[in-house]
Specification:
alpha/beta; TIM Barrel; Oligo-1,6-glucosidase, domain 2; Immunoglobulin-like; five-stranded antiparallel beta sheet; disordered N terminus; binds alpha-D-glucopyranose
Length: about 575
C-alpha cells in the first residue's frame, strides 16, 4: 500500500450537463464538528488550534473541502447553532486569528474551507433579539416573527418545532408569541424584512473577505414563512411520547417551510458569492427528492443541496438503488451525498454495527463516490465508526430533554474523534472531555489504522484517490461525466439479485448488498479494469489479488462494492 497520494489542489474540470463543473463538483468534502474534532488547549472541547494541527490528516486522506460547524459566540444551548454574534469567534474555540490561521493552513494544503451559517434563527441572546424583545416599538422588533395569540389565548397556529412541541413561545411582557422552528432560545428571523436580508449580505461578505470558500447553510428549508400564518394540514393528532420525527411527520409542512420566496434570497446570495467563486451548499433537510428539486432546479440559488435519505434508509437492495437514483432522477446534479452527520446516528451502526456495518457503509460510500455531486464524510466515517456510547446521565443534547424520548438524543454521533493512544485517545489532554469518548478503543484510532494497510482508513483513502482519478478520466471525455445509466450497466451481462449497478461514462460501479459472495457470470475482467474494491486492493475477483488474468466470471465478496473501468 503506497503512502504517496499527494494532496493536490482541486483539479480544473470539464462538463456537467452542458455547463462546466465547478470546483465543488469535483471535491470530496469532510464535516468537522469542531467541538469534537481536536482540542488544542486542553479544556476538553475541540477548537481552531486543534483543528489546524490535524489538517494534515485530511490532506493525507485526500479531502478537498472542509466544512466547519458553528464556532461563533453562543450561549451553547444548541451547542453553537444558537448564535449571538455572526462575525465573531467564541473564546471556547479560540480567536478570529486562530480561525484565519486554520483557513490559511488548509489552503496551503490544497483544502478549501466552508463555514456553517445559521440564518434561520439567532440565539435569544443576540443583540438583535435583545432589542426586539425589549418593546413592541423597538427597531428590530420586526426582525423576528411575532404574532398575537389565537382567540383562546394559545399559540397563533399549529406549527411545531423540529425539536418537538409548539413552534411558538409567549413573550409575557408584550403578550405576543414569537416563532422558533427549533428551541425557544433560537428565535426565527423574519426573512420578509429587508433589514434582515441586507444584514446577512454583510455577514457573508465579512467571511468571504477572510478567505472562506463558501457556506453550509443551516435549515435551508426554513427562512420565509407563509404570509398569512395559516395552519399546516394535520395528518394525525400529536400523542405524548412521540419522537421529534414522529411529531414533525404528523403534519404536511406546506406553510412553515419550503416557501418559494426563500428562493429569492438564495438568488441574491448566488450573485454575491459568484464574485468570490464561492460555494453554497444547503442543509435541505427534506426526505423527498422533489423537495430537493424545489431548491436546485432554478440553478440560480444554492449550488448543491444535501440529500438526507441515506441517513434514514434501511439496508436493502431496493432501498440502496432508490436512495442513489431518486435525487439524480429529480435534479441531475448538485447533490451533496452524505450518510452520517452530527445530527443523526452514524451509518455503520444503522447498517448493523460491527465490521459488517462498517463494510456496508464503505460499499455505499463507494457508490456515492461514483456519482455526480459532492460526497461528504463526517469525521470518523474514514475510520468506519458507529456512534459512541453515551449513558443517559451524560446526555447534554437539548432535544431529548425537550421530547423526553432518548432516541432523539444526538450525543452518540458527536463523541470526540479518536486520534491515537494516550489520554482521551489523543483528542484532548483533558481526561474528561465535554462528551465521553464513547467506549472507543485504540483500534478505532487514526494512528492505529494508519499503521494497518488493510484498515477501513486505508480503503477510504484509496476510494478518495479512485474518485479523483475517475473524475480526471471523465473530464477528459466530453459529455459523459454527468450521465448515469442504471439499467443493464454491462451490456450482455445480467446482474444477480442483490447487486446494485450503475454506469457513468466508461466506469461501472457494482455493490453486493447481500451477506454472501456472488459471482457475475459472463463478465470478463482484466486486472487493469479494476479501479477500486472496497474490501481489498484491486484484483480480479473474490479470490483476491493473486487471481490475475482474465476470468469468465467476476466475484464480489459479501458487502463489497467495486469500481470497474469498462469503456
Ligand atoms: C441544523 C443543525 C442542527 C441544529 C439545527 C438548529 O439541523 O445541523 O445541529 O440543531 O439546525 O440550528
Amino acid at each position: 500500500m503506497s503512502d504517496s497520494i499527494a494532496p493536490a489542489a482541486v483539479p480544473a474540470s470539464a462538463s456537467v450537463a452542458g455547463t462546466p463543473p465547478s470546483w465543488w463538483d469535483r471535491s470530496v468534502g469532510y464535516e468537522a464538528y469542531i467541538r469534537s474534532f481536536a482540542d488544542g488547549d486542553g479544556d476538553g472541547v475541540g477548537d481552531f488550534i486543534g483543528l489546524r494541527d490535524r489538517l494534515d490528516h485530511l490532506a493525507w486522506l485526500g479531502v478537498d473541502l472542509l466544512w466547519v460547524t458553528p464556532f461563533y459566540p453562543s450561549p451553547m444551548v444548541d451547542f453553537g447553532y444558537d448564535i449571538a454574534d455572526y462575525t465573531g469567534v467564541d473564546p471556547l474555540f479560540g480567536t478570529i486569528e486562530d480561525c484565519t490561521a486554520m483557513i490559511d493552513r488548509a489552503h496551503e494544503l490544497g483544502i478549501r474551507v466552508i463555514i456553517d451559517i445559521v440564518p434561520n434563527h439567532t440565539s435569544h441572546q443576540h443583540p438583535w433579539f435583545q432589542n426586539a424583545v425589549a418593546s413592541v416599538d423597538a427597531d428590530k422588533r420586526d426582525w423576528y416573527v411575532w404574532r398575537d395569540p389565537a382567540p383562546d389565548g394559545g399559540p397563533p397556529n399549529n406549527w411545531i418545532s423540529h425539536f418537538g412541541g409548539s413552534a411558538w413561545t409567549l413573550d409575557e411582557a408584550s403578550g405576543q408569541y414569537y416563532c422558533h422552528l427549533f428551541l425557544p432560545e433560537q428565535p426565527d428571523l423574519n426573512w420578509s424584512n429587508p433589514g434582515v436580508i441586507e444584514a446577512w449580505k454583510d455577514v457573508l461578505r465579512f467571511w468571504l473577505e477572510r478567505g472562506v470558500d463558501g457556506f453550509r447553510i443551516d435549515v435551508t428549508q426554513g427562512f420565509v414563512k407563509d404570509a398569512d400564518f395559516r395552519d399546516n394540514t394535520e395528518l394525525r393528532p400529536l400523542e405524548p411520547g412521540m419522537s421529534r420525527f414522529e411529531q414533525w411527520d404528523s403534519f404536511v409542512h406546506e406553510r412553515d417551510i419550503l416557501q418559494d420566496e426563500t428562493l429569492e434570497i438564495f438568488r441574491g446570495w448566488h450573485e454575491l458569492v459568484a464574485e468570490y467563486d464561492a460555494f453554497l451548499i444547503g442543509e435541505t433537510y427534506v426526505l423527498d427528492a422533489m423537495a430537493l428539486r424545489h431548491f436546485l432546479e432554478p440553478r440560480d440559488g444554492i449550488h448543491t443541496g444535501f440529500w438526507f435519505e441515506p441517513m434514514h434508509m434501511e439496508w436493502s437492495t431496493e432501498a440502496i438503488l432508490d436512495i442513489l437514483r431518486a435525487p439524480l432522477d429529480a435534479v441531475g446534479s448538485g447533490i451533496g451525498w452524505v450518510m452520517s452527520s452530527h445530527d443523526d446516528p452514524r451509518a455503520p451502526g444503522r447498517f448493523g454495527g460491527g465490521r459488517e456495518g462498517a463494510e456496508r457503509a464503505l460499499a455505499l460510500m463507494t457508490m456515492m463516490m461514483a456519482l455526480p455531486g459532492t460526497p461528504f464524510l463526517y469525521q470518523g466515517d474514514e475510520l468506519g465508526l458507529a456512534d459512541g456510547y453515551v449513558p443517559p446521565e451524560r446526555f447534554v443534547d437539548p432535544v431529548s430533554f425537550r421530547t423526553g424520548v432518548d432516541s432523539d438524543n444526538r450525543d452518540g454521533c458527536r463523541t470526540p474523534m479518536p486520534w491515537g493512544s494516550g489520554t482521551s485517545l489523543g483528542f484532548s489532554t483533558s481526561e474528561d472531555p465535554w462528551l465521553p469518548m464513547g467506549g472507543r478503543d485504540v483500534a478505532d484510532t487514526v494512528e492505529f489504522q494508519r499503521n494497518d494497510p488493510t484498515s477501513h482508513l486505508h480503503r477510504m483513502r484509496a476510494l478518495l484517490a479512485a474518485r479523483r482519478s475517475m473524475n480526471a478520466a471523465l473530464d477528459a471525455q466530453d459529455g459523459t461525466s454527468d450521465t448515469v445509466e442504471w439499467d443493464a450497466p454491462l451490456a450482455g451481462v445480467t446482474l444477480p439479485a442483490g447487486v446494485v449497478g450503475l454506469r457513468r461514462g466508461p466506469f461501472v460501479a457494482l455493490l453486493n448488498s447481500t451477506d454472501g459472495a456472488l459471482n457475475i457470470e459472463g463478465l470478463t475482467v482484466e486486472l487493469d479494469d479494476v479501479h477500486f474494491r472496497s474490501l481489498a486492493e484491486p484484483g480480479i475477483g473474490s479470490k483476491g489479488a493473486d487471481d490475475v488474468g482474465p476470468a469468465e466470471s467476476f466475484g464480489l465478496q459479501a458487502r463489497e462494492a467495486v469500481l470497474l473501468h469498462r469503456p
